[in-house]
Protein: Solute-binding protein family 3/N-terminal domain-containing protein
Amino acid sequence: MLKSVLTLVAMLSTFTASANTTYTLQASYEHKTQDSYEYQALKLALDKTTADYGPYKLKVTDEPVPPSRFIIEANAQSKENFIFVDSVNKEYVEQLSHANFPVLLGIIGYRIPLVSSDLKSRGYTISSREELMTYSMIQGKGWLDTDILKDNGFKVHTGKYIEGLFHMVAAERGNFFPIGASQITTAIQNFKHVEGLSIDDKILLYYPLPRFYFMGNKNIGKMARVEYGLKLAYEDGSLQKLWQQHFLQAIASVNMEQRKLFKFNNKYIRNIDRSYEQYIYNPFKNN
Structure:
């Protein structure tokens, strides 16, 4: 059934797609873009749809576009068919076109806290939501996560600079600094010069934080191709294989399935098509 629906979408969208379509992906800040999961997943989706949509070119922006300019650049078309990955929010959905598929299979929504080594050594017990709410959080100023945590009733301490957030939690200027489960081991390694950092080993926070591919609002047909390709890749297992190559080692090291899970709401995705939820990774599925 899924394959027949996706094939129909592809056939309808093919009429609006041009031959040898160019996609220009947002450059990575941290490493070579071509080595990133976001680049490789997009390439996989485009490869899967070549038979229906024709050849393509996948380029990368010369420099990373600041997130504050994503909407402007996408709709201005100054960069040929600019495409980027980011967490879903109301502004993106209203002003851009998107592929309704969680590119990272929702792993960023699972958050594991960094804590101070002193707090961890003193010990703490969190067995209920009420107990968890007595602890304060640390997040970046202006981050979507900050708003989500505040909306759910947490006291949140904010900082402007990334490194400063690690110093804040180490100095207990807040209790927990939740980071994406797939990112936390890399974060600890990158900021190992900050003394007094530890990874909590008790809890796992979750709020839906899907990351979609976005393009300008006139690129609905091109986005349909990407969504179709991602779903084909998921259906045949090739996307999960790629995802595991990039993230499985990192998430295995933090024992997600052994933690106590606390779920929270994200009101900023209230009006999007929830069919993406079937593709969200569940670390407790086999428990």
User: Anything to note?
Assistant: The radius of gyration is 20 Å.
